[in-house]
Design goal:
This is Unc-93 homolog B1, TLR signaling regulator. InterPro entries: Ion_channel_UNC-93 (IPR010291), MFS_trans_sf (IPR036259), UNC93B1 (IPR043268). There is one protein chain. It is built from 23 helices and no strands. With 595 residues, the protein is mostly helical. Helix 3 packs parallel to helix 7 and helix 6 packs across helix 8.
Amino acid sequence: MMDASDQEELVGDADQPVAPPNGVINELLNVGQEGNMQGQMEEFLGPQAEYNEEEEERKYYRRKRLGVIKNVLAASVGATIVYSVYMGLLQMQLILHYDMTYREVKYSNLGLEDIDRKMLMGINVTPIIGLLYTPVLIRFLGTKWMMFLASGIYALFVSTNYWERYYTLVPSAVAIGVAIVPLWASLGNYITRMAQQYYEYVNYKEEHVQEQKKLPKGACHNYIIVFQSVFYIIFHLSFVFAEFPMRFVLHDYLHENPHILFNVHSCGANISGVIPGFNTTVLTNLPRSMLLIQVESVLMGFAFLAMIIFLVLCGAAYRPTEEIDLRSIGWGNIFQLPFKHLRDYRLRLLCPFFIYSGFEMLFAVTGFSLSYGVCALGLKKLWLLIVVYGLSCSVFSSLSLCLLRLPRWVCLVGGAAVHAVLLVVLLAFSPPPKSPEYLGPLLVISVLWGLGTALNKTGVSTLLGMLYAEEKERLDFVYTIYHWWQAIAIFIVYLWSNLPMRAKLSILLATLLLACYCYWVMERRLAMKVPFRLPRIPRPRHKVKGYRYLEEDNSDESDSEKSEEDDEEEDEEHERRHRREDHVKEGVREEREGG
């Protein structure tokens, strides 16, 4: 009976409708929502009606071009600050150390005169070995990081002036000498590379740009002219800012002309050395130590600002893959290539201009401003001569923009003509000491010399960029050679300090004439299409594994990792060579049988 009732209950339960599980109900309810979400995802991931790919690409490359302009301005401002701080501090330091009272009261047994001689020797002599290590440093660190490191060395030089001792001043001066050539080679390379990058970002649709091939000849010359002009317009203002410590700190502590120039009997072309008879006490009273510390702290702050500008605002000069390729040709090859580039007759014939470029700027700030300016006008007018010279250089650097319409020789020949006339005038010009009435003529000479300097500096840098615009892997070698010859010229000027003024002017004039002749020969050879000899740069061979990038020619590939296609190409080359040899042998055999 029990079994029957159980069965009846079970049957009864089965007849009643059973409610489906909650999950099934949810699935049935969500079917429509899932279809909706799928449609929204397809709409989101699909092509957008309002998205314009070409417009977005154009905006992207516009941002890239603005980034290049930012890089050029940042490098120019950074270099200006570095040299403003360096030259301003060095000038103030040399004037203070020259004063006999300052030396005896503050550093009686230290021998500041001897320290200054060693310091100037370190700054002027050390760069002559710059050709040996500059390309290796630039390729090891990269162009941007080389500029940053060099600006740090200049900041180190500023910091050593807090504690003036032999073991602080001399080593930091030697470090400055080591950094001069790498800094300037990096700056020249960087500005030219920015011009090349700007061209690539303007013509990003061109096939040779997309495939990262060599640029067409003359394609980026206009950008090189503009960027080099902008750099020198900004950089030459460093001569103006460098005079701020002299004008606003030391000016009120300087003696008047009758005291400083009491034993000076002749100036200009008639003298030997710098200023014979110049008084050894130039300060009326000694500046407070706290004032000097405050000035040095301000200069130190600007030196750090220059480092931050190079670090944060300057972008990379090369792509990461290009940086790898530049380093991977072998350090021995990098060391040798600057010397091998001197086989190029274009560089050899420009060497006299490189040397003159170093001569004329250093002569302007030491020879002319001291032996003519200070000797006739007094030490209180030194800042005015340098400021006028710096402003003239800055303003007239814009004249190099005329190369956008005129031949490239206009800048160099124009600057050389101005300097040749001035050198002849200075050979005959000897103003008497303590002659304030000669302020006008000396300021005119400063302005005109600045005109020549501006045309010379912008002309040489622009010319080098134009000659090697398509050879971006050679730029660091070329600018290293240029600034190394300038360093040699600075060393020669350091050696000739005691020569008669007419001998110095004669050397300048002879170098200028030789430079003009050699430049004419170079342009004539190029017009006649005489081939120049460029050293072959070895193909990069990367030994590391784990970093690969797509390229037609995979420069990461080492000898042991050759692709099958390369092996097949080599086999085909061997077969072609063997067929040529067999053909030659058959021809020789037929000639013998015919004979």
